[in-house]
Amino acid sequence: MSKMINFRADDALDERLARLAKLTGRTKTFYVREALEQHIEDLEDAYLADQVMERVEAGTEQVFTLDDIERDLGLAD
User: Fold this and answer.
1) Distance between CA atoms of residues 3 and 6, nearest Å
2) Number of structural domains, the chain?
3) In 3-state terms, the chain is what percent helix, strand and coil (to 5)?
4) pLDDT tens readout for residues 20-53
5) 18 is a domain residue
6) Is there a domain that residue 1 lies in?
7) Domain interval for residue 55
8) pTM over cut 0.70
9) Where does residue 2 fall: left (phi above 0), alpha (psi -120 to 50 degrees), or beta otherwise?
């Protein structure tokens, strides 16, 4: 099932979407959906990274150096 999502686009973005849609025979909705599908994972990753960084800075997230990891994996010289 799909859901309707409304958002406001400024004139410049709307014109770009309209031009692209006209050139390709697709709808503006198609391109908005494509953009979201391609970029939502990056946005989710950035949000998660921000949360982890806050914990690192607060000292509540355990961190390891590359030397620690190499030693634990038996890769250290």
Assistant:
1) 10
2) 1
3) 70, 0, 30
4) 999 999 999 999 999 999 999 999 999 999 999 9
5) yes
6) no
7) 11-72
8) no
9) beta
